[in-house]
Structures are given as structure tokens and as C-alpha cells.
Amino acid sequence: MTTRKLILTLAAPCVLCAPLQLSASGFQVLERSARGLGRAFSGEAAIADDASIISSNPAGMIMLDGTSISTGLTYADPVVNLNGSNPLGQQADAKDVIEEALIPYFYLSHKVDNQLALGLALYTTHGLKNSYSDDFSAKISPQSTELETITIEPALAYRINQQWSLGIGISAVYAEAKLRGRSVPPFPVPDVESTGSDWSWGYHLGVLYECSENTRFGLYYKSNVNLNLKGDNVVNGNQRAGSLEVDLPETIEFSAYHQLNDNWAIHGDVVWTHWSRFEELNFNDPEIPVTTENWDNSMRYAIGATYFYNDSWTFRAGFSYEESPVPDAQHRTVRIPDADRYWLAVGASYQLNECYALDFGYSYITSATADIEETEIPNGLFDGESDASVHLVSVGISGSF
Question: How far apart are CA 114 and CA 158, in angstroms?
Fold first, then answer.
């Protein structure tokens, strides 16, 4: 068995064919824990209520006792439709261009002593999957798009004093991509299939500041990861070597958490993503057109509350607003018809015994109707609009022992 196949086998529970427009802006994926989903991922860098804190702020591991584990699965049911026409005056509609998906996650942390904690995370940060039928008449170039990622993150946390803790981790990212396109007469665009894969790495840093027993703030930085997806391009049946560079952007997250009393806590999040790194899709092949993207940086805002009902039940809810990095209708494409989106989320945890709890989360995401005006042949020639929504249901188990 090759090294690549061995690693993929070991990490198989965290492989994701992430559908487009499921969670965060662009092609980010946020579905990394059931508890987080149930509060619209508000306050993630500060709450530190299970081992999934590794993916939001590794410094928070210092607040977990003993050995902690968190694992689960999110089911996504998206609805993404396009309505419009092509330059020939033909109606060009597409329904349900994104399939259902299952999104797993796994986290493990261990508190060595009062000053040191170690952890490991397996999940995904980015993904993309859509497809269009052969009778979609506006589909000039992109016919289907798939980007799958696996992220493996070892991390450690160190407590400096009673108020300050630091965290650091390495992000090893494996990615595979497959993009297909076809021409619709009379437009002179070749039939294309491009595949590629790559391993790359980045890092993440976190700071946790505990003002008091009830109030804390978290600051988290996740670096960009530059992928050079090498593989094959097949153009009109002719195969040759090809590559596609994809730069996964860095993010900065600031979170706050405050416990009001024995029953209530509030939490919030502000996240900046450096999407301006995404300038184009370039397959480094003279026969495959370059798609200009020129995205903007984007912001995400979230607020939520947690209700500690009794020793067995905890309830949570949240709301989030995300800006789309797509600057205007001219840069929105049928390959990535991204738009601003709004989250409504609810969730609960049930304590099974002294060690383990069942976690449940549900989110409904809706996107604003967005115009698409593709006027260049390489991009697809489509004039219309897209609308999207998704139901997310997550079930997990968390525990410390």
C-alpha cells in the first residue's frame, strides 16, 4: 500500500466531499462539531467546552480536564437553484446542483499537567462539490467541480499564568480536485477534465485570556495553505500533465464568552478571512481558459447563548451573518455562485453519565438571491440568478475521563 493510500485509509472518517455553499463564505467548511453547529459557531475560540476547541483555538485545551474526546457526523441537505438564460435567448435553469453530504470530525486532547495539554484533530476546512446536467444550456465551460480536503492537526497548549494561555499547532492538509467542462455549440471552448492532488501544510496559533472564572476572550490565527494540485489535464481527449494552484486563505477569529449566572451564558464571534488571495482559476494549460475571480476579503459575525437547564441537559442557540467574498455579479460564476448567508441554529447536549454526553445541533442557512452575469466565454456565458439554502443536522459524542 502506498503512503498516500495508507494515510487516506487512516483518515477516512474525516474525508469530505464538501458541497458548495454549505457553511462559511467561499468554499470554507465550518461543520466541525455538533455543539458548535447548535450555536452557529459563536464564541468558538473562547468557549472550550469540548475537544473541538483544537480547531478554533488550541490554547483552550488547557481548560479541559484529563483526556477529552469529541467525535460526530453532520448531515447536510442543500438546495441550490439557478435561473437564467444564455446569449442565444435559451432558458438555462438548473435545480439541486449540490448533493447531500456527510461531514465527520474527530478530536482528542490530553492534559499532561496544569500547564501543558496536547491534542490531535482530524476534520476538514475547505471543500467544494457541484454538478450540472448535460441539458444545462448555459454551461459552456465548468460542468462539475470537486475539491476534497483532509486536515490533520497536532497541537499543544501552555498555561503561562492564571489568566493567559497560548496554543500552537501544525496543519497537514491533503487535497484532491477534479474539474470537468464541456462546450455547447457554437461556443469555441474545449471539453476538459482536470484532476490533481497535493499535500501541504500550515500552522495555527491561539491565545486565551481569562478575565475571571466567568469571562474569557480568545484570539485565533490560522495560516494560509498553498496547494499545488498536480495531475492530468484531458483536453478534447488528449491527456497531458497539468496543475492547479489553490491558496486556502488565512483567518483571524476573535471570540468572547461570559457566564451571566448558573443558568445562562452568552458568546460571540468575529472572523476575518483573507479571500483576496483567490484571484483566478488557472490550470497552466494554453488550451484551458483562465477564470478570473478577484475575490474580496470577508467577515463573519455570530452571537449565541447557552442555557444550563440542569445537570443532564444543556441547550444552546445562535445566529450568524456572513459576507460573501464575491465582489459583484460579474465575478459570480456558476462554478461558485456564492452569496451572503444567514444562520439560525439550535442545539442541545445530554449528559449520559459522569464521563460522556450526547450532542445535537441543527442549523438552517439561507443565502440572499444573487445575480450572475458571466459575459466571457471562459466563464460560462450565463445571465441569471442563484438562490441557496441548507439544512444541517449534527450528532456527536463528547467526553472526558
Answer: 9
Is residue 18 exposed (0-12), middle (13-18) or buried (19+ Cβ within 10 Å)? buried
DSSP-derived letter for residue 329 is: G
Of 337, 305, 345, 341, the closest CA to residue 321 belongs to 341
For the stretch 195-221, pLDDT in tens is 889 999 999 999 999 999 999 999 999
Domains of the chain in start order, with CATH, are 3-400 (2.40.160.60)
Mean pLDDT in residue range 188-197: 76
DSSP state of 47: H
> In terms of Cα–Cα distance, which of 196, 150, 195 is closest to 174?
150
Given this model, what pLDDT does residue 3 score? 39
- Whole-number Cα distances in Å, 58 to 13, 15, 51, 231: 22, 22, 9, 34
* Residue 370 near residue 339, CB atoms below 8 Å: yes
Task: Assess whether pLDDT exceeds 60 at residue 140.
Answer: no
C-alpha cell of 31?
A: 461543520
Cell triple for 202? 500550515
Q: Cα angle at 76 between 72 and 77, to 5 degrees?
A: 155
**What are the tens digits of pLDDT across the range 242-275?**
888 888 999 999 999 999 999 999 999 999 999 9
For residue 116, the tally of other CB atoms under 10 A from its CB is 14
Phi, psi of 151 (to 5 degrees): -115, 125
**Which segments of 236-368 are extended strands (E)?**
238-248, 251-259, 264-273, 280-281, 291-292, 298-308, 313-322, 341-351, 356-367
Distance from the Cα of residue 209 to its chain's centroid? 26
Judged by DSSP in three states, 277 sits in: helix
